[in-house]
Amino acid sequence: MATVTFDSATRMYPKADRPAVDNLDLEIGDGEFLVLVGPSGCGKSTSLRMLAGLEEIDAGSIRIGDRDVSDAPPKDRDIAMVFQNYALYPHMTVEQNMGFALKIAGVAKDEIGRRVAEAAKILDLEDYLLRRPKALSGGQRQRVAMGRAIVRNPQVFLMDEPLSNLDAKLRVQTRTQIAALQRRLAVTTVYVTHDQVEAMTMGDRVAVLRDGVLQQCDTPGALYERPANTFVAGFIGSPAMNVVTGPAVDGGVRLAGAVLPVPREKLARAAAGTGRVTVGFRPESLETAPPGEGVPVVVNVVEQLGSDAFLYATLGADDDGDVLHTADVVVRTEPRTAAAVGETVHLRVREDCLHVFDPVTQLRVD
Amino acid sequence: MTIASDDPRVAAAAAPPPAPPPGPPVRRRRRLTRNRWGYAYVAPFFVLFACFSLYPFLYTAWISLHEVRLSDIDGAEFVGLGNYTALLQNEFFWNAARNTLTIGVLSTVPQLAMALGLAHLLNYKLRGRTFYRVAMLMPYATSIAAATLVFAQLFGHDYGLINTLLEAVGFDRVDWESGTWTSQFAISVIVTWRWTGYNALIYLAAMQAIPGDLYEAATLDGASRWQQFLHVTIPALKPTILFTIVVSTIGAVQLFGEPLLFSGNGMTSGGVSNQYQTLGLLMYDQGWTNFHLGQAAATAWAMFLIILVVVGGYALLARRRARAER
């Protein structure tokens, strides 16, 4: 068991014009499940591979426990990794795959057998120990890859999109199994995914990366409630938060001719330089208002999901000459009372559900 | 949406389509005519194959059952398996078989081992990798005659570079050509030089198909470079290695050009005491020096059977191992 610390860790690929991972500072607690999430190319896999020792660290350092492992070879870091494609040795049986690291380390045969049997029992792989990977289903291969990590009893688990090769249903199932297993083993885990639902459901904390820079690292609830900037606001939550910018007027922001109320101090600070303000509101925090109140939007598409309905609507350009681009807005409503396509709906944001951002720095204003 | 019973799809699903009438049994003839274009497209190859491979092959078998002189092919006299029994009692045949085996082992084993090592090195990201890859294939592109002549000079007794070097470091001169082991070693060096790069390229191609994350997983599992080579590379290359062994074996049994030219005087006897006469040389000797075509044909068929037995043995071994692994 150990903590993991990224201390201004930076990775610059040769011939690249900006670092793949830029000054990453991250503290991961003992036994914590931390998820690195972000769009492709954001540096999340690179960060994980730096921790694994598969990528060099060009500046800064990485510590596991109290030990600086920045220059340690992968085998001396006491970590185990689950790869996206599982990377199972094709010519070895499940048993041999899981016991390979122990065999290399010179562990006694009966000890290897005992630990492999133990892991196989946890992962429900006992009937497949003598099979080769090609005779296993995708889910079973995924479990073997997990088993290979568990058997080694490492200080840290690293997982690189381990669920991305499973079908949707199995992914949801395995997601909860992995999370439960991690709680049970209480081993510090760093988990990489591009799927924000996975990140939110599995992680104790979630670190959001973009272009190699850490945007925010917090509990799933806090990320949802208080996103640090517009990127995190748009990335976390599904469907994404609506983020629009409009001119600041007395009492709020003017959108499509109507005024959306914004608390006075926030408005003042956000609009200080430009006279404009960026606001964000989630589809689920919108409600319809009687005509004359609220912001009018025109419905383009209605998505019926049974439990909810989503309206995809357009926020019209401002008619006061101070024209802003039109914006798309997503609204969650009751499925029974959903508006029809072409209809104009008036919206207001539930109390305390409006996020205010600085239109220039894109940072949250509190 | 309502589900109406008059929906055409529902109606179609409700009423099962009439069972297709039992058709006439498909006859071979019909299948032949239906696929006639397919047969037409593959025909050119098989026509050429029949003319230039199958016919000579069968004709050789026919000749091997006759007493035939090169000067009078039509005056063949049927002798049954006489040529074969004569071959089995012929000490030259056993000598040549032994030579072929030793030269084959001396050249194939180091050749494939070196090819594997070279391929492994070239699989790393080296500067000027393409240059090395091309350079490796150069010996293969060199004519046997040119290469062998150069090597015959290198191994020469009086002025050969190798003997000069041996003498310079205090050893005696070696008479490479006249000794049994020395001559066979020298010929093996030529064969190895010529074919190592070719096999290395085949291995390299197979190595590049191994997914990189297997090596990363092995690194994390604590395997050293050598252990990765043993536990990841070699198992993945197994089918390729078998292929190169088969091809090299066939080449070794048919070895002809190198020992012929190594003597430097074009003698087909393979040295004064036949110390490096291979089966290929023996066959040539019988047919074109002594004009006994029947015997030469019998030797050719014996070589073919040896190849069949050896390659069949490999295949059996490989299949048994694969079954044991399953």
From TrEMBL, chain A:
Residues 4-236 form the ABC transporter domain. SMART domains: AAA (SM00382). The keyword Transport applies. Pfam families: ABC_tran, OB_MalK. One of its GO terms (molecular function) is ATP binding. Signal peptide: none annotated. GO terms for biological process: carbohydrate transport. GO terms for cellular component: ATP-binding cassette (ABC) transporter complex, substrate-binding subunit-containing. SUPFAM superfamilies: MOP-like, P-loop containing nucleoside triphosphate hydrolases. PANTHER family: MALTODEXTRIN IMPORT ATP-BINDING PROTEIN MSMX, OSMOPROTECTIVE COMPOUNDS UPTAKE ATP-BINDING PROTEIN GGTA. This is Multiple sugar transport system ATP-binding protein. It comes from Geodermatophilus amargosae.
UniProtKB/TrEMBL annotation, chain B:
It comes from the Bacteria. The keyword Cell membrane applies. Keywords: Cell membrane, Membrane, Transmembrane, Transmembrane helix, Transport. Belongs to the binding-protein-dependent transport system permease family. This is Sugar ABC transporter permease. Residues 1-29 are annotated as: Disordered. Residues 97-316 form the ABC transmembrane type-1 domain. It is a multi-pass membrane protein. Pfam families: BPD_transp_1. GO terms for biological process: transmembrane transport. InterPro entries: ABC_transporter_permease (IPR051393), MetI-like (IPR000515), MetI-like_sf (IPR035906). The chain crosses the membrane at residues 37-58, 101-122, 134-155, 185-206, 240-257, 298-317. One of its GO terms (cellular component) is plasma membrane. The keyword Transit peptide does not apply. Residues 15-25 have a biased composition (Pro residues). CDD domains: TM_PBP2. It is found in: Cell membrane.
